[in-house]
Write a structure and sequence with these properties.
The chain has about 200 residues and is of the alpha/beta class. Helices cover about 55% and strands about 15% of the residues. The chain binds adenosine-5'-triphosphate and magnesium ion.
């Protein structure tokens, strides 16, 4: 009975939400007990902090600290208990988002992020992270058709270029954990890759 910790990453509009419900359903079809969650958020306190993070104007330092405050509560109340009980946890965004947005996007120093990461989650890292990689202009066009932009989504394309590069650096540094998915491919093609990877994850 060993749970797995799986995260979905990528810039706004890259395709995470399009696949995550389907992915969780595929796991359940295999009889796997899954907790689906998201960041920032996933616990009562963290969802309250999410509202502030997505709506209120704030500096980079406050943003970085609130992200980790939310993550700390989410880990303690949701993620760690689920994994300890043998459940799988599938999370829409996690600390790679912090490296990409607050680090590469906003310029928060890497050593501060690394310190907070090790304080808040110790040695815990996702077993698998899917990076939905897509050009910022295309992602912006896709998400514009879905809803009004939040504070992050209102950033310009230079910001999202930095975030995208940050994500790609993360993936390159840890190829065993990441699966990079080309967000330009059809939904059905991406699902074939995800399905194969689920089989791999179940067999390791
Ligand atoms: N492979 C694809 N081909 C064409 N359109 C897609 C594809 N993947 C997602 N879309 C569309 O792009 C839009 C944004 O996708 P989605 O909401 O999944 O992004 P997201 O990564 O969850 O973004 P956010 O971080 O803002 O929540 C949706 O309208 C979705 O239908
Ligand atoms: Mg989404």
């Amino acid at each position: 009975m060993t749970g797995r910790f799986v995260t979905f990453e990528g810039i706004d509009g890259a395709g995470k939400s399009t696949h995550i419900d389907w992915y969780v359903e595929r796991l359940r079809t295999r009889g796997i007990d899954v907790v689906q969650t998201r960041e920032p958020g996933g616990s009562d306190l963290a969802e309250t902090l999410r509202e502030l993070l997505l709506r209120r104007k704030m500096g980079m330092q406050a943003e970085l600290l609130l992200m980790f405050a939310a993550r700390s509560d989410h880990l303690e109340r949701q993620i760690r208990p689920a994994l300890a009980g043998g459940q799988w946890v599938v999370c829409d965004r996690f600390t790679d988002s912090t490296w990409a947005y607050q680090g590469s996007g906003r310029g928060a120093p890497g050593e501060r992020i690394a310190w907070l990461e090790s304080w808040v989650h110790g040695v815990l890292q996702p077993d698998r992270s899917y990076l939905f990689d897509l050009a910022p202009e295309l992602a912006a066009r896709r998400r514009a058709s879905v809803r009004a932009p939040d504070r992050f989504e209102s950033e310009d394309s230079a910001f999202f270029e930095r975030v995208r590069r940050g994500y790609r650096d993360r993936a390159q540094a840890d190829p065993g954990r990441f699966v990079v998915l080309d967000g330009e491919r059809a939904v059905s093609e991406i699902r074939v890759i995800l399905e194969e990877d689920i089989a791999d994850l179940c067999n390791t």
